[in-house]
Amino acid sequence: MNDQAKKLRELAQKIREERDRASLIVDPTIRRPEKISIDHGIIPKVKKTVVGAPPKTIDGTRSSGSTATVAELGVKERLEIKKEMAISPADNTASCTMGIHSTRIIAVSSGKGGVGKSNLVINLGIALAMRGKKVMVLDADLGLANIDVLLGINPKYTLQHLVDGGKTMQEILINGPHSLKIVPGGSGIPELANLSDDKRQKLIENFVELDSEADLALIDTGAGISKNVIAFIIAAREAIIITTPEPTAITDAYGLIKVITQRDIDVDIKIVINMVSSEKEGREIAGRIVMATKQFLNKQIEILGYVTSDPLVNASVRKQEPLILGYPGARASKCIRQIAVNLDKIDKDDVRVVKRNGFRGFLSRLFER
């Protein structure tokens, strides 16, 4: 009896600790830790690099070399610098990725529904495409798959037809705005866990074809901490977590980050605060989440940006037209374009992306779980 009472007391203590941690994120006045300093606000400014500066090595340092500007160099010197930057023995990143093209795969998720995740995925995908990227969106939200609804399209085929072997990848792909490619997930997503070895291999081969066609793939997962959601995030190795200023959304986002971190500490996690009233609110909420994950989970996450609350978002949804196209001057559109700039700082030929092995690596990891 004493042992049982002891276990109950220990369980109650754990529950109180978790509740205190969640309260700290939602309401920092309960116990305000040391304030985090975020340089340049929530959106980091792009640093201007000197043209002709030596390329970075894998550890982030610069090799020795010229720091002169292009204007100060002659034609011969400029050609030499271009050649060195393209293939430099000091730049291991360049030398190990020559000729290798791996799609950068990012899972986009949230702790709860209703935070504008799918809408952000579509608009972010278009914003990246407008920057010259070849982008693909995979609708993997099992419960509320609505990428097609947001775009006003009615897909004839879905991933289910590809899984069944009736259609090829090229046949189910949908062309969206600015050459955005869309893979309608539909009912085909749950089937992925039950495929035979032959079907798995065929599916991998179909997706690997996209490595040469897509620089970046955004996977719109479901919300919450279900097995499927976590599996997609772990397999992608990079995730964007969307939340809003609502206390429940914040605590659920932290809960999702905690589960991901417990499963795999090395997943690259970024956060976006949606529907904020101001930049200040976005900065404060993002700072609290970053602080809590560092303090309690020993995990460093990145602030990708914020999106201000804008009535034109609802107007675009009703029109089934992406906000960034229908209302390019809207406050929310400007925020999304800035997020695209921040996300675009890592190229698909970056050594971190190449190591993930594109779609082949993604599906292999997904099938392992």
Structure description:
By secondary structure, this protein is α/β, with parallel strands linked by helices. The chain is 47% helix and 13% strand. The protein contains 17 helices and 8 strands. The chain has helices at residues 2-26, 75-86, 92-97, 117-130, 147-151, 159-163, 169-172, 188-191, 197-208, 227-236, 247-263, 279-297, 311-319, 323-326, 331-343, 351-355, 358-368, and strands at residues 104-110, 135-140, 174-175, 181-183, 216-223, 238-243, 268-276, 302-308. The protein has an 8-stranded mixed sheet, sandwiched between helices. It is globular, with a radius of gyration of 22 Å. It starts with a helix and ends with a helix. Residues 32-99 have low confidence and may be disordered.
Q: Helix coverage percent of residues?
A: 40-55%
Strand order across the largest sheet: 3-4-2-5-1-6-7-8
Q: Averaged pLDDT, please?
A: 79
Q: How many helical stretches? A: 17
**Run of helices and strands:** HHHEHEHHHEEHHEHEHEHEHHHHH
The secondary-structure class comes to alpha/beta
Task: Report the end-to-end length measured between terminal Cα atoms.
Answer: 40 Å
Shape: globular
Strand content: 5-15%
Low-pLDDT residue intervals, each spanning 5 or more residues: 32-99
The count of strands amounts to 8
Q: What is the gyration radius calculated from CA atoms?
A: 22 Å
Which sheet architecture does the biggest sheet show? 8 strands, mixed
